[in-house]
Every structure is written in C-alpha cells, then in structure tokens.
Specification:
The protein has two domains: 124 residues, ATPase, nucleotide binding domain (Nucleotidyltransferase, domain 5), CATH 3.30.420.40; 110 residues, ATPase, nucleotide binding domain (Nucleotidyltransferase, domain 5, 2-Layer Sandwich), CATH 3.30.420.40. It has seven helices and 15 strands. By secondary structure, it is of the alpha/beta class. The longest helix has 19 residues.
C-alpha cells in the first residue's frame, strides 16, 4: 500500500514513537463534522480488532473540545497504541489549513502536537477523504487497481482522494468545486439530500452533474463512492450516467478509521528505517570502456 506523497511528521514529545502494545495494531480515529469514531485496527488485514466507539462531535467543535473526545476514545481502548486521526480539511504535515465543517480556530493549528498532548501518544493527522481512499485502495474497492482512481465520499460534506497507480495525491478537496455558483458539497453532499428531503432521483441528478465535472478534470479510470450513503448504493448508482465505472466503497463507515491506522503505521515504519548519514556524495568513475556523455 502506498501512502501520502509527503510523509507525516510525528507529534512532539519526549517519546516520539513509543512501543505499540500489539504487533500490526494501531488506533484509528475518524473526526467528522457530526461524529468522532475510533477503533483499533489490525493493519495487516484491515479489520477492526474491537467494536468501534462513536461520540458526537462537540458543538462548537473547537480544538480543545475535539481533543478531549479523541483522548476519551484513546482511553477507552487503553494500551499504548500509536494513533492515526482523520480531519475534515486540508492537513499539511500535521498543520490544519482549512476547516470547512469544524470551528475556524483549527486553521493554522498543529494538530499533531495538540492531539499528542491530549492523548499522551504519538499521533499523525491526515485529511479524512484521503484516509478513506487509502483504506479502499489497500483493502476495498480499489485494491490492485492501477491508473487514475478517484474516491468521492458523500457525507456531511464531499471529500475526494485521488490516486495514480496506488499513490495518493493528498488534499485534493474537489468537494469545493463550483457547480451552479455554489460549492459542490452544498448541492450534492448526502446531508443535502436529508436536509432538503430530496428524492433519490433528484439527488442522484445533482451527484451525476458533479461527477461529470470531476471526470472532465481528472479523467479517472474508476470512481469509488464512499461515505455512509454508500451502504445504499443501489438506490442511486443505477441513476448515474458516468463516463467511467462508478462503484460503491466496500469499507463504508470503517474506511476513515482503517485509513488513519494505516497512515500512522506507515509513519512508524518510516521512522524506524535507518537514515543515510549526511556527507558529500561520492564521485563515481565511469566504467572501463564507457563513453563520456556529450555536452551540448
């Protein structure tokens, strides 16, 4: 499984990467606009090793309040698991850049440090749709798929994750494309269907228009629809008219948890690799008989 193009930075603290209690097991926590859920994950199989816990997102969703919920979930499962967290916004090396569905106090905050301090664990943070996409590419609908694959999560907002030959292009945030003068997620998110009491057919028309815009931009070879609504894919997928295959995600509401756990696992493994010693590169002599390159 390929992780983000830029590796995560661990949270600050005296024990940057403490020993994990169980081999291959990491704690994944999915922070959403309406709920925060988490569970330990066996990253070798993608399976949750305990029943997940779900707590409503605090209102207002200020950083300190959300960090307290994350700490509660961590304490619920005990142990000394490394923690991977998702966040509904752009995350660059642990720093929150956007927070469309949470309190604006998050913007500019070092979430690695905040959540690491709250949980007394090493924490990595990544975009929630990116996490769901990583999970689907590893264990779900995108497994062993090459080329351009686009994951679209339909929930409180719209999240996207773009992959090229299994490698993530992070923080795409195509849910904020303009469609008919509005952010796409204000027209086609699953929340919109519920709040406006749209029929499946009418809502599917909005989703279809949005996916058409994405296809024109990215030319994906496969689109995976995730989010809670993917469990009812039979109600709307047949109403779409895509230019490429569109299929439902397989991990559904567990995708963010699994992807967050995979993300922190990759960070732990990267931190454990020996780093090359600094120094000047050694000049290599050309092999005997080799021609020198011509300079133009």
């Amino acid at each position: 499984m390929m992780g983000p193009a830029a590796g995560p930075e661990p949270s600050a603290g005296p024990n940057r990467w403490p020993r994990s209690g169980e081999l291959n097991t990491y704690l994944g926590i999915d922070i959403g606009g309406s709920g925060i859920k988490g569970a330990p994950v066996d990253t070798a199989t993608g399976r949750l090793t305990a029943e997940r816990i779900h707590i409503a997102t605090p209102v207002p969703a200020r950083p300190e309040a959300v960090a307290e919920v994350v700490a509660t979930i961590s304490q619920h499962f005990g142990g000394d698991h490394h923690i991977g967290c998702t966040f509904p916004g752009v995350v660059m090396r642990g720093v929150i850049r956007t927070a469309a569905n949470l309190d604006p106090a998050w913007v500019g905050l070092d979430a690695h440090a905040l959540l690491g301090h709250a949980t007394h664990r090493s924490v990595t943070v990544l975009n929630d749709a990116d996490a769901a996409g990583i999970a689907e590419m590893a264990f779900g609908a995108g497994r062993q798929r090459c080329g351009v694959v686009l994951m679209v999560t339909l929930g409180t907002g719209i999240g996207t994750a773009l992959f090229l030959d299994g490698r993530l292009v992070p923080n795409t945030e195509f849910g904020h494309l303009e469609v008919r003068g509005k952010d796409a997620e204000r027209r086609a998110a699953a929340r919109v269907r519920d709040e406006r009491h749209l029929t499946w057919k009418r809502w599917a028309g909005r989703v279809d228009e949005y996916l058409g815009r994405l296809e024109a931009l990215c030319n994906p070879e496969l689109i995976i629809i995730g989010g809670g609504v993917s469990a009812r894919a039979e109600r709307f997928l047949p109403l779409l008219h895509p230019g490429c295959p569109v299929i439902a995600a397989q991990l559904q509401n567990e995708a963010g948890i699994v992807g967050a756990a995979l993300h922190v696992r990759d960070a732990v493994e990267a931190a454990a690799r020996p780093r090359p010693s600094p120094g000047r590169p050694v000049a290599r002599r050309p092999a005997a008989g080799a021609r020198r390159p011509r300079l133009y």
